[in-house]
Amino acid sequence: MRALIAAAIGLATAFALVLILTAMGTPSGDTSPKPLLTTVPAHP
After folding, report:
1. What domain of life does the UniProt record list for this protein's source (predicted)?
2. CA distances from 1 to 6, 9, 14, 33 (A)
3. Cα–Cα distance for residue pair 35/41, rounded to 1 Å
């Protein structure tokens, strides 16, 4: 029973956190025009 209560509290907390972050909206700012390198360039 305690595990069920703990799971319910954790789920409610996570759900509340998602709602708060959603209500805050997207942060202001611009994205970088330069692409990120995800691989290491090959050396000839």
Report:
1. Bacteria
2. 9, 12, 20, 53
3. 14
Q: Determine the residue type at 11.
A: L
Structure tokens at 27: 């942060």
| CA angle at 15 for the pair 9 and 21, rounded to the nearest 5° | 135
Query: Residues 4-26: pLDDT tens digits?
Result: 999 999 999 999 999 998 988 87
DSSP assignments along 1-44, one per residue:
-HHHHHHHHHHHHHHHHHHHHHHH-PPP----SSPPP-SPPPP-
Diameter of the chain by CA atoms? 63
For the cut 90, the answer to whether the pLDDT of residue 42 exceeds it is no
Place of tokens 């709602």: 19
